[in-house]
Amino acid sequence: MATMGRASSGLQYPERFYAAASYVGFDGSPPSSSKAVRAKFNSESALILYVLYQQATVGPCNTPEPSAWNAVEKSKWSSWKKLADMASTEAMRLFVKILEEEDPGWYSRASNSVSEPVVDVQMNQNTKGGPVVENGNSYPETKTISTENGSIQEAQDKDVVSEGIGSVGVYDKWIAPPVSGQRPKARYEHGAAVIQDKMYIYGGNHNGRYLNDLHVFDLRSWTWSKIEAKVGDESHDSPSPVTISPCAGHSLIPWDNKLLSVAGHTKDPTESIQVKAFDLHTSTWSFLRTYGKPPTSRGGQSVTLIGGSMVIFGGQDAKRTLLNDVHILDLETMTWDEIDAVGASPSPRSDHAAAVHADRYLLIFGGGSHATCFNDLHVLDLQTMEWSKPTQQGEIPTPRAGQAGVPVGENWFIVGGGDNKSGVSETVVLNMSTLVWSVVTTVEGRIPVASEGLSLVVGSYNGEDVLLSFGGYNGRYNNEVNVLKPSLKSSLQSKTETLVPDSVSAVHYAPNVTRDVQSEYEAGQDGKIREIVMDAEPMKSRGKNFNEHLVATLKADKEELESSLSKEKAQSLQLKQELSEAETRNTDLYKELQSVRGQLASEQSRCFKLEVELAELRQKLQNMEALQKELELLQRQKAASEQAALNARKQGSGGVWGWLAGTPGSEKSDDA
What we know:
A hairpin with a 2-residue loop joins strand 3 (132-134) and strand 4 (137-139). Helices cover 32% and strands 24% of the residues. Strands 12-16-15-14-13 form a five-stranded mixed beta sheet, with no helix packed on it.
């Protein structure tokens, strides 16, 4: 049986600096003390502490200059830039000195909650070099760490295995803690979620067979148990009896004390995505009725919870067609909305990782097609619905698919995945503000965290964030729980932003603060914790001069910013006046337009009446033409009648005169 040793060291540098940083609130100290300290610091002192911490942990400022519109970040950047190549050791001592000037009793108060740095040392008594067996579980042997002259020698095995996770004294290392209870069947492509210190595992794939069992892992007792889920009867949300089909490649989302199982591959796929809900109080499954046009049924998609909505991207449908569409489900109205985003969208893919930053930006990393794995990073602005492909920095991960990811503050941890050849052994982290990648740790051998289709969630243990992975496939199916306690740098960025007054909520290119600040930094490189030896008296003088110079510089920057702010306010006032004038002109023009529209309507009505009258006149004109023709005909007939009558009269008058002359008419005819 292994026992635990306890090795301690005095608060020399750099431990004293890290204790001071923890007390100030830069690395996850208790919130109550952080709030109390922040209330005592003025803006200048807070800014000085910030830039000294950056110089001590990150080094000289090499980040791009922020926009002039962001006054706070501009001031932080310019102050950090002025430190130039100041040594980190000098910045550490100045940090502590300024803290002591602002709060002379900080150390006594910090010692109540932060004792001397303690390194838990595994005193392995298993001299045969075999594995250590605890609670029926076998673990690799952990090498002995000896202490000589108060200094800690480098352990031959970097992972510390103990009787419980609370005994682990190192950060950023994966361990397999001893657990109790009946473990779930080994699987991958399952769903995982955490609600109230419990991790739930649902479904998955084992040897090509889909599963529908539900298990819970208690993060306080480290105990597995199986939930005997019931099936809901006919209800408003589920009008027909519920049948829970086994599935894999789905997403498990915690929401309102329920577990939502979204999409996934099934033996008999439906045409569209279905949303199942598991009520933790009644242990009952039910289908949720949705409205709108639901997305095509799929698996291997990403589902990200943002406020009261779920954002779904990509995946692969039942016909193995890869997708890159975006859909949003409003969980209040249960209504689907398909997003037609602009910009260059990611190529169709599945088994990628997704996270949300600042409740606005959806990040998509990696994934794969049928023959290719990706390591590209895409960002969707959920306000403008525009895709972009930003430039990645740092140690950019290799292409992978089937990885799992979870955000912790500003940092997005990515674990596992594969590249069609082997599992990925690195655990990487992306600072979502600076888009800088770094490697957290690397594992060796075929262990579960180097698998595809594993799950990754974040939980809490003893007030600290811990990452928990489960399952996966790396040549064999796994059902182990592995735990990583991320170093306190994980929440550094958000802590820093709350420390500096008037900080903004979402900064995209803030300084990179993801450097390691553990007490074993140098031990990992050369096996020793290096001592910092400096002359105290010259340092006090240099610190005083630097402090005065920095304060003067900050005051000058403050005056410059106030002047710029005044100009911006004046310009803003002028723009408001111009806007008011434009609105007045717009109102007048609108009234005039309405008047013109009224006149136009009257003219249109009058034109219509004229057209009717014109049609009537045309009809009358046609009638008059017909009458004219009839009149002309009658006139011709009259003329002909008059002519005939005239001729008749002429003939009658000629006969009388001949008779009077003695020439009868009959004779005249005979002569003729």
